[in-house]
Amino acid sequence: MVTAFEGLPGGVAVSHLCVYDWPAADGVSGGTPHMHLTCSEAYVVTGGRGSVQTLTTSGYEVTPLAPGTVARFTPGTVHRLVNEDDLRITVLMQNSGLPEAGDAVLTLPPEYLADPRTYAAATAVPADAPEAERERAARARRDLALEGYQALREAPEGLADFHRAAAALVRPRLAVWGERWRKGAAAAAAATGEQLDRLEQGDLSHLADAVVRAEQPSEHGRFGMCGRLDVYKGV
Fold first, then answer.
1. Is 90 in contact with 46 (CB distance < 8 Å)?
2. Could you report the per-residue pLDDT of 157-198, keeping only the tens digit for each?
3. Closest residue by Cα to residue 104 from 159, 10, 167
4. C-alpha to C-alpha distances, 99 to 27, 39, 145, 228, nearest whole angstrom
5. For residues 227 and 222, what is the distance between their CA atoms, to the nearest angstrom?
6. Of 200, 123, 224, nearest to 166 (Cα)?
7. Taking the model in full, what pTM does it have?
């Protein structure tokens, strides 16, 4: 029997994002700067206008975002979304949505990155709290991350230290991430390989098992790192 993979193509995941319009200390409205360690992301802009600021070892860049733009970046890219006019994005995430399930480290000042408990306390948004309290927590962590982000922009040689601190923070979760990858992207690639082998042998059996699925968001308006999220449970 040909292996089937039931997730989105390639083991990606999707969410809809309305970027925060909260002004920051630098006068710019937008989200929380952060970095992923094992996942690429792509932004498909569906409405409004803005930009994404990025910081890598190659330097600082600003990429304009307008309807129809597809912007993508690889692990190690510090990114900050800027909302200029009702910016709305469909986010495509590698590894079955791992960027929203743990693979993200915010650019907090160094003293918050040295200890996992300190980092967790500074970045938590209490799920069961009233909405006003959740917004306060999301804004506070955004503003704290901007402090560290501005320091990195002014002294980009500090990126190496940030990379090391981020890797240390996520190390205890790597085994769980590995399992997510094996059940997602790795399983999707293995299924394609098996199907190719069987087609080469004239085995068409997987074509008779075709299915169609559809899903609505399982949650609307979650406070994410960059804005309010509509998320999908199964994808």
1. yes
2. 999 999 999 999 999 999 999 999 999 999 999 999 999 999
3. 167
4. 27, 7, 17, 15
5. 8
6. 123
7. 0.94
